[in-house]
Automatic annotation (TrEMBL):
This is Elongation factor P. Residues 129-184 form the Elongation factor P C-terminal domain. Involved in peptide bond synthesis. Stimulates efficient translation and peptide-bond synthesis on native or reconstituted 70S ribosomes in vitro. Probably functions indirectly by altering the affinity of the ribosome for aminoacyl-tRNA, thus increasing their reactivity as acceptors for peptidyl transferase. Belongs to the elongation factor P family. GO terms for molecular function: translation elongation factor activity. It is found in: Cytoplasm. It comes from the Bacteria. Residues 67-121 form the Translation elongation factor P/YeiP central domain. Its main location: cytoplasm. CDD domains: S1_EF-P_repeat_1 (cd04470), S1_EF-P_repeat_2 (cd05794). Pathway: Protein biosynthesis; polypeptide chain elongation.
């Protein structure tokens, strides 16, 4: 058990029979009444985000989550195959469970698979990935690096707003948390 006073971003907890990751939290001490912790939690089974308030000092269960380093291999009939790099065991994850993460994943990419016991909860991506621009509008003379952006479709199908100087075939670093352009690779 862990006290809600010890919440940290990224901590995984068990509440109401579900596994949650703490996305954000705030300790609140009102002038009148008892202190409490306002938190934003992400359900690792469904992907939904919920705000929940706990009384200060309340105890919740700490969920033991394992991250197994695996390599993304290929898609097979609506599932995606991953291989454990330590023992070469392969697992399949249904596309519906990881459809948001697929926008950032290329074949042979190493990712962490989030597991609770033997249950697969999802894929934990690196903070940034390098993707190639598949299609974007050509530059127009007079466009500068500091004046706006244009949409670009990456090799995985992800659409990202990029600066005007980016061309088709460029390799870009993309933030996986919010899908934004970081820089050229």
């Amino acid at each position: 058990m862990i006290s809600v006073n010890d919440f940290k971003t990224g901590l995984t907890i068990e509440v109401d029979g579900d596994i949650w990751r703490v996305v954000d939290f705030q300790h609140v001490k009102p002038g009148k009444g008892a202190a409490f912790v306002r938190s934003k939690l992400k359900n690792l089974r469904t992907g939904g985000v919920q705000e929940k308030t706990f009384r200060a000092g309340e105890k919740v269960g700490k969920a033991q989550i394992d991250n197994r380093k695996m390599q993304y291999l290929y898609e097979s009939a609506g599932s995606h195959v991953f291989m454990d790099l330590s023992n070469y065991e392969q697992i399949e994850i249904p596309e519906e469970q990881i459809k948001d993460e697929l926008k950032y994943m290329l074949e042979n990419m190493e990712v962490n698979i989030i597991m609770y016991g033997s249950e697969i909860l999802g894929v934990d991506l690196p903070n940034t990935v390098t993707l190639t621009v598949e299609a974007t509008d050509p530059n127009i003379k007079g466009d500068t690096s500091s004046g706006g952006s244009k949409p670009a479709t990456m090799e995985t199908g992800l659409t990202v707003n990029v600066p005007f100087f980016v061309n088709q075939g460029d390799k870009l670093i993309i933030n996986t948390a919010d899908g934004t352009y970081v820089s050229r690779a």
